[in-house]
Amino acid sequence: MSLRKLKPVTPGTRFKLANGFEEITASKPEKSLVTSISKSGGRNQSGKMTMRYLGGGHKQQYRIIDFKRNKFGIPGIVKTVEYDPIRTARIALIHYPDGEKRYIIAPNGLAVGSKVEAGPGAPPNLGNALLLSEIPLGTTIHNIELRPGQGAIIARSAGTYAQLTARDGKYATIKMPSGETRLILVTCLASIGSVSNPDHNLTVSGKAGRSRWLGRRPRTRPVVMNPVDHPMGGGEGRATGGHPRSRKGIPAKGYKTRKLKNASTKYIISRRKK
Fold first, then answer.
1. Contact 78, 112 (CB under 8 A)
2. pTM for this structure?
3. Confidence tier at 37 by pLDDT (50, 70, 90)
């Protein structure tokens, strides 16, 4: 995947860095795997705004992704690599011999015509989903389950990956994308490789309008608010607003919000990097 630097013919294209989209092979999604998605604009069921700075945006359709990879022992063929407006990674359409079609998160380097397989006994090839007990140590993985059969919830966004570093008994030691090291049951599934579209974090939108297309409204800085609106508001002139904190007064930048009695603390070997 590469980035495109546009000619500065307008102010919006002067600093714009856009995706190259060379890996995309289809422009229309599979109809049977698409469903409608409605937008709330940040409002709850009574119409009250509960999330600020949301609203608008282009109409989108949700692609149903196979995060469980529970079609064991049946190899499928990658037919297309597609763009997904909901997520940062690319998705791949898999055709199985029995006629079923499924979308998966496309790993970096997966090409049309490749074979992918899931389940016990599958080879540790790119895009295959295996049990953590069968993956070679040191392998780069993504789409990791936290509980057996739950479906992948770890390392799903563009360019992310984790690493299988050790195994001991019924637990595997995983180095997470955040730098945290934790234990996960070896009966959980994970996919081989890193997630596609690794240059996503290098893109530059170029103009505020592209944020509006994505459903993001302009964000007001807390220091320019009034004291009634935010703890950091008020003051004469350009006051700094004191210590950084949230709208509800919870300190930011170093204040730990994790509960000490969380049940999952015993599975965390080392915390993420600060």
1. yes
2. 0.91
3. very high
